[in-house]
From TrEMBL:
Pfam family, one: DUF1091
Keyword vocabulary terms for this entry: Signal
Organism: Drosophila melanogaster
Protein name according to UniProt: MD-2-related lipid-recognition domain-containing protein
Domain of life from the UniProt record: Eukaryota
Keyword Signal: yes
Signal peptide: 1-19
Length: 178
């Protein structure tokens, strides 16, 4: 009887442990300012517990019909080291059939509701992502596919017509709490 009560208490405590995502930094870099440039790229801290990220990219050479995105996740271990995923996908084909690549679908799921990039090519307008909150990221990273505790960087290289046009880096810390 004592063993079973201890087991139930342990299971209850394990169930109560959950992860928490904190956005620590957000960087955007335009590599070809004749093609595109960032109007803003910001991490906004509303209060101690609510942070969000936003960006707006002006596209100067529209329409854009060829997009590739390389997304890599890095974990901080004496510098940032590759961790788990490094995928490159044809963005135009992926948007048409999101089930074609489950890893990219997972990554896109983090920000798809906060952006206007949710239609297929061509893109003939500015790209906007508004108020992607830590809570949205937290849901995807802790509920859908749990990640271990640590500091991470998500780096996205955006290619148009096979030329690297922009780099976006998102830094997060993932902690477990009871």
């Amino acid at each position: 009887m004592i063993f079973s009560v201890g087991f139930l208490v342990t299971i209850f405590l394990i169930r109560k442990v959950h992860s928490l995502v904190e956005i620590t930094n957000f960087e955007c870099e335009s590599l070809d300012r004749n093609f595109s440039d960032f109007e803003y790229c910001r991490l906004k801290s509303v209060n101690r517990t609510y942070k969000y990220i936003s960006l707006k990219v002006h596209l100067f050479q529209t329409p854009v019909n060829q997009i590739k995105v390389n997304t890599a996740i890095y974990k901080r271990l004496n510098g940032y080291k590759p961790f788990l995923y490094n995928v490159t996908v044809d963005g135009c084909k992926f948007i048409k059939n999101q089930n074609s690549n489950p890893v990219t679908k997972f990554i896109f799921g983090v920000f798809k509701d906060a952006t206007n990039m949710n239609h297929s090519c061509p893109y003939d307008h500015d790209i906007i992502m508004e108020k992607l909150s830590a809570e949205s990221i937290n849901f995807q990273i802790t509920k859908i596919l749990p990640f271990p505790e640590g500091k991470y960087m998500v780096k996205m290289n955006w290619f148009a017509y096979d030329i690297n046009r922009a780099i976006i880096r998102l830094y997060i810390t993932l902690t477990n709490s009871i």
